[in-house]
């Protein structure tokens, strides 16, 4: 496929990330339909050219329209709902996606089934071509056109090249890649480690502890990626090091901010906080690691923290008293 053949893009999910990706695609010259599920939101986007629920007063590109359903002439779809909602959204829209390239932009693993986003797509729409978009990218930055670079991974290399070129614009640069498993795991796992890093700050454990955590998270992530057939080298790129750095050091990350609250001793009330994907992904990642026989002490620590069954001081002391081992 040539990039010019990608004229019509549909984005499913009108939250902050879906709206930002729709905006970037419109700026890149595509005709974009943002698929919402609220008629009032559709009316606001089409008349006032804002999506206030997702991105406040940010003016949206005139080439972006909203609708309640996918149009018939879509060349490329982008799925941008929370990871635990991807199967439900595909249940509604999947029959329109047969044979199409579908960009998966959620960062998370599915509870219960332990599926990655591409596995969910291929189970529900076997003829679709999956492409995974991940990397350091806050919706607010992408929507405002601030310089952002991400990875776009697919086993179909020519498709990844074409879609990367079709979505690239003055503020968004996409690097095509082949290791979809590595990119998907990196995107999901960084949220778990961002929770941990936020907790370290919230508990006042110091910048040295947070840096050590990031480095050991990187090593842990590599073990899991390799065990699942991915390439550890992928983690040196945008989806690995890039996103881990962003999400583990910025309170703008909802996962980091949630960890910060936990570290300060606050109790999480379901439905009362912004989306923090790591809360859902942590137990799934732990289950996958157990299945593969991979040692993941940091993921275990986050699961324990989230369970509320141990104080952060005890969790940290458990980590620090593990048997010493070599780093090389
Ligand atoms: N925000 C960011 O900076 C980034 C987010 N991501 C990832 O993108 C994903 C989405 O995050 P984000 O946009 O921030 O989340 P938001 O909470 O901002 O928005 C979620 C959106 O998904 C919609 N939605 C939920 N369930 C369904 C469903 N079953 N069918 C259709 N639409 C549904 C919601 O609709 P409604 O409003 O009607 O409930 C809402 O518009 C996450 O996996 C996140 O990790 C990745 C990179 C950056
Ligand atoms: O994935 C993101 C940045 O790359 C957004 O992070 P949060 O979901 O933690 O806000």
UniProtKB/TrEMBL annotation:
It catalyses: sn-glycerol 3-phosphate + NADP(+) = dihydroxyacetone phosphate + NADPH + H(+); sn-glycerol 3-phosphate + NAD(+) = dihydroxyacetone phosphate + NADH + H(+). Pathway: Membrane lipid metabolism; glycerophospholipid metabolism. NADPH binds at residues 16-17, 37, 107, 139, 254, 275, 277. Residues 179-316 form the Glycerol-3-phosphate dehydrogenase NAD-dependent C-terminal domain. It comes from the Bacteria. One of its GO terms (biological process) is glycerol-3-phosphate biosynthetic process. GO terms for cellular component: cytosol. The active site is at 190 (proton acceptor). The keyword NADP applies. Keywords: Cytoplasm, Lipid biosynthesis, Lipid metabolism, NAD, NADP, Nucleotide-binding, Oxidoreductase, Phospholipid biosynthesis, Phospholipid metabolism. Sn-glycerol 3-phosphate binds at residues 107, 135, 137, 190, 243, 253-255. NAD(+) binds at residues 13-18, 139, 254. The keyword Ribonucleoprotein does not apply. It is found in: Cytoplasm. InterPro entries: 6-PGluconate_DH-like_C_sf, 6PGD_dom2, G3P_DH_NAD-dep, G3P_DH_NAD-dep_C, G3P_DH_NAD-dep_N, NAD(P)-bd_dom_sf. Substrate binds at residues 107, 254-255. One of its GO terms (molecular function) is glycerol-3-phosphate dehydrogenase (NADP+) activity. Its main location: cytoplasm. Its EC number is 1.1.1.94. Catalyzes the reduction of the glycolytic intermediate dihydroxyacetone phosphate (DHAP) to sn-glycerol 3-phosphate (G3P), the key precursor for phospholipid synthesis. Belongs to the NAD-dependent glycerol-3-phosphate dehydrogenase family. This is Glycerol-3-phosphate dehydrogenase [NAD(P)+]. It comes from Devosia enhydra. The lineage of its organism: Bacteria, Pseudomonadati, Pseudomonadota, Alphaproteobacteria, Hyphomicrobiales.
């Amino acid at each position: 496929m040539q990039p010019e053949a990608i004229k019509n893009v549909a984005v499913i999910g009108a939250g902050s990330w879906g709206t930002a990706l729709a905006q970037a695609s419109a700026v890149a010259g595509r005709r974009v339909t943002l698929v919402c599920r609220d008629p009032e939101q559709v009316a606001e986007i089409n008349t006032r050219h804002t999506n206030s629920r997702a991105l406040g007063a940010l003016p949206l590109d005139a080439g972006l329209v909203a609708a309640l359903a996918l149009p018939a002439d879509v060349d490329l779809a982008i799925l941008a709902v929370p990871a635990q909602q991807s199967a439900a959204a595909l249940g509604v829209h999947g029959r329109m996606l047969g044979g199409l390239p579908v960009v998966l932009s959620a960062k998370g693993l599915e509870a219960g089934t332990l599926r990655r986003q591409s596995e969910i797509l291929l189970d529900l729409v076997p003829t679709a071509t999956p492409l995974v978009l991940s990397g350091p990218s806050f919706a607010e930055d992408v929507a405002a056109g601030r310089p952002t670079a991400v990875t776009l991974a697919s086993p179909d290399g020519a498709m990844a090249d074409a879609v990367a070129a079709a979505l690239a614009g003055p503020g968004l640069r996409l690097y095509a890649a082949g290791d979809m498993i590595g990119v998907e795991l990196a995107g999901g796992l960084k949220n778990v480690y961002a929770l941990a890093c936020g907790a370290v700050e919230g508990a006042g454990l110091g910048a040295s502890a947070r840096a050590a955590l990031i480095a050991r998270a990187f090593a842990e992530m590599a073990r899991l990626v390799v065990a699942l057939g991915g390439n550890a080298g992928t983690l040196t790129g945008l989806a690995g090091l890039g996103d881990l750095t962003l999400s583990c050091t910025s309170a703008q990350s909802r996962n980091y901010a949630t960890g910060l609250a936990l570290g300060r001793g606050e109790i999480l009330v379901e439905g009362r906080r912004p989306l923090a994907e790591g809360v859902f992904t942590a137990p799934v990642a732990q289950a996958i690691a157990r299945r593969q026989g991979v040692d993941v002490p940091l993921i275990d620590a986050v699961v324990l923290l989230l369970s509320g069954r141990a104080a952060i001081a005890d969790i940290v002391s458990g980590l620090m008293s593990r048997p010493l081992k070599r780093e090389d």
